[in-house]
Amino acid sequence: MGGDHAPGPEVAGAVAAAREAPVEVILVGDESRLRAELSRIGAAHTPRVHIRHATEVVTMDDTPAQAFRKKRDSSMRVAFDLVAAGQASAVVSAGNSGAMLSHALFVLGRSPGVERPGIVTVFPTPTGTLVLCDMGANVEVKPSMLAQFGVLGACYDQVVHGHARPRVGLLSNGTEASKGTELTRAADALLQRAAAHPEASFQYLGYIEGSHLLTGEVDVVATDGFTGNVLLKATEGMAEALLRMIKSALMRSLRGRLGGAIIRPVLEELRRSIDYAETGGALLAGVPGVVTICHGRSDVTAIKNAIKVSHRFARASLPQRLGAAIARHQGLWQDAAAADPLG
Amino acid sequence: MGGDHAPGPEVAGAVAAAREAPVEVILVGDESRLRAELSRIGAAHTPRVHIRHATEVVTMDDTPAQAFRKKRDSSMRVAFDLVAAGQASAVVSAGNSGAMLSHALFVLGRSPGVERPGIVTVFPTPTGTLVLCDMGANVEVKPSMLAQFGVLGACYDQVVHGHARPRVGLLSNGTEASKGTELTRAADALLQRAAAHPEASFQYLGYIEGSHLLTGEVDVVATDGFTGNVLLKATEGMAEALLRMIKSALMRSLRGRLGGAIIRPVLEELRRSIDYAETGGALLAGVPGVVTICHGRSDVTAIKNAIKVSHRFARASLPQRLGAAIARHQGLWQDAAAADPLG
After folding, report:
1. Same domain membership, residue B295 and residue B269
2. What is the pTM of this model?
3. Is residue B178 part of a domain?
4. I need a surface site. Which of A94, A187, A290, B137 has the fewest CB within 10 A?
5. Are residues A144 and A24 located together in one domain of the fold?
């Protein structure tokens, strides 16, 4: 109920997902509004689409803590309660993402050994995908959290993209060991140790620069949520700006307008392929349940894909496997906590 | 002498600059190699191109401190000494950028009141330019340094792009005051106070997200050198990846190949317009002299443009005006140093 255009895209997206995949969807929110919306789109009796009533809504203006403490019967809270009670496997929402995080932490808790859950985002690249963790859940982190984002991202990449030994990098301002900050240097040492573990299921490449993210030489990049969020939004903005610049350059000449008309369908397809709506939402990794955070402005396609992807994640036991990946390096995190140079 | 392909592009770039603009260029380095290179390109007697001999070269492997302490007669050191002695107005180099920074600090020092010089980069946008400071000189900063990067960037934008009251933003992971880090929140408060100064020559917009950098709503963005460097390189990488994706999408169909052949010249022109080589190097702001840091792989065009731009900066007294912009808020920096929450 908390997305920018809720509950329209949510209801239509749920119906579309339930038609395309064997997924049971529980719409959580004001029952009469949800029923009305289902009827409006001629989907009142869609198999596998259920409704669970909730009286309140977390808005974009609610602070994460307030939303959790004061709105005990919000659609977000009820959805998380369903997962905590084992009545659902995943929460998908286009609502307040800070509140999604606080609900995940307070209702589901963290998987054992996880210091802070991180948000995983997937970028399309010319040759495949790039997994980035954390893209915004934690703006101030410790070295062990940063190293855990690398381990969580690697496990995600392995399960979701099928890479046997994902190549993991740590985002920095240069590749030399002298580069980076106190934080990245300490995290680098931890990731080196984690990758040296006999049961480690990833390779660690060390520092990766911004210019090498999309070249296909790395599968997973760990960074703090501040840098990750800036990076994600800046590259989205750059892609949009570049497409606008191409369009306006083409409009300036007859030759350009002619060629532009010919290639328009190709560019449109490319735009769709790199659009967030096609990949659905972002996973909150490190909690015992699938939590998928969608853009507030998600449309029907984005919601549909987020539901289908969440269903796939739940069937693959992704939360359990992410927890196991962190548990594999248990001693490392304990040593790191004892020796944390940043306190 | 320290660029990736030195001294070829440096010599040819200097000759081209001296032919196109009324600039006197002193080539600093091994005299016989420089003379040979000038002869090789048929430019042995180019007016306004001079040579100053230096026996050593700072390499990309030298640490910034070593380069300064051990290579007293490097081409970089001699060039900085010329500026310190008033015999030159600007240093332009495609050599080791960390060493450029250490030489600037040790030979020229900081302009009065400047805590840390910052590197200014200019991004092309669909509607103009975006000035970013710092793009890599300082990876760990204090709030007052971050605020100074905003003031330096604003002054640069005013002098170089002619904006009467540049709109300055502080890069963050969201626009709400609760977003950002302890560092950005403290810098935000300082920039608000600086912009409220009766003689302030910029407007302060507060937090800016990565997605709003290239939309034309902001002229200048302040950030720390770690985030700035990651951002700069990631957006460059994204632009390259996107152009590659467009090219390969076009190659997949006859229609695409036809349209692609027609628009190729338009895309090539666009690529040139957003290429670093066209805009020359990046300015180190906050030192008493023009210091222009070029990509190690700079070609003739990049060097030529960096020299012409540096000449323009020197004639506009840009270093003095940057120093005056910082001095205007003198009390603010002193208060900030006294009250720095990060120590």
Report:
1. no
2. 0.92
3. yes
4. A290
5. no
Same domain flag for B174 and B264: yes
In a domain, A221, yes or no: yes
Whether A328 maps to a domain, the answer reads: no
Two tokens at B290?
A: 């023009």
Q: Which residue of B126, B139, B174 is in closest CB contact with A244?
A: B126
pLDDT digits (tens, 9 = 90+) for B115-160: 999 999 998 888 899 999 999 999 999 999 999 999 999 999 999 9
Q: Count Cα neighbours of B332 within 13 Å in the Cβ-side half-sphere.
A: 25
Q: Are B75 and B1 in contact (CB under 8 A)?
A: yes
Nearest CA in chain B to A63: B178
Give yes or no for a cis peptide into B7 (omega within 30° of 0). Answer: yes
Query: What average pLDDT does the segment A73-91 reach?
Result: 98
Distance from the Cα of A288 to chain B's closest Cα (Å) equals 26
Q: Round to whole Å and give the CA distance between A256 and A260.
A: 6
Residue B125: list chain A partners with CB under 8 A: 241
Do B238 and B133 sit in the same domain of this protein? yes
Chain A and chain B share a number of CB contacts under 8 A equal to: 191
Percent of chain A at pLDDT > 70 equals 97
Question: What's the total number of domains in chain B?
Answer: 2
- Residues of chain B contacting residue A62, judged by C-beta atoms under 8 Å apart: none
Pair (B39, B158) in one structural domain = no
Query: For strand A167-171 and strand A220-222, is the pairing parallel, antiparallel, or unpaired?
Result: parallel
Q: Which domain holds residue A205?
A: 120-276
Q: Where is the domain boundary, B243, B276, B309?
A: B276
* Gap between the terminal Cα atoms of chain B: 40
| Same-domain pairing of A201 and A234 | yes
pLDDT tier at B285 (50, 70, 90 boundaries)? very high
Same domain, B69 and B98: yes
Q: How confident is the model at residue A275 (pLDDT cuts 50, 70, 90)?
A: low
- Scanning every residue of chain A, which has its alpha carbon at the shortest distance from the alpha carbon of B171? A230
CB A107 within 8 A of CB A115: no
- Domain end residue (candidates: B276, B294, B311): B276
Please determine, for residue A187, whether its predicted confidence score (pLDDT) is greater than 90: yes
Contacts of B253 in chain A (CB under 8 A): 266
Residue A237 corresponds to which tokens in the numbers above?
């903005």
Residue A337 lies in a domain: no
Residues B142 and B240 both lie in one domain: yes
Tell me which residue in A225, A231, A246 faces B234 most closely, judged by beta carbons.
A231
Strand ranges (E), chain B: 25-29, 49-53, 90-93, 118-125, 128-133, 167-171, 203-208, 220-222, 282-285, 290-293
Q: In the predicted model, is pLDDT for residue B271 greater than 80?
A: no
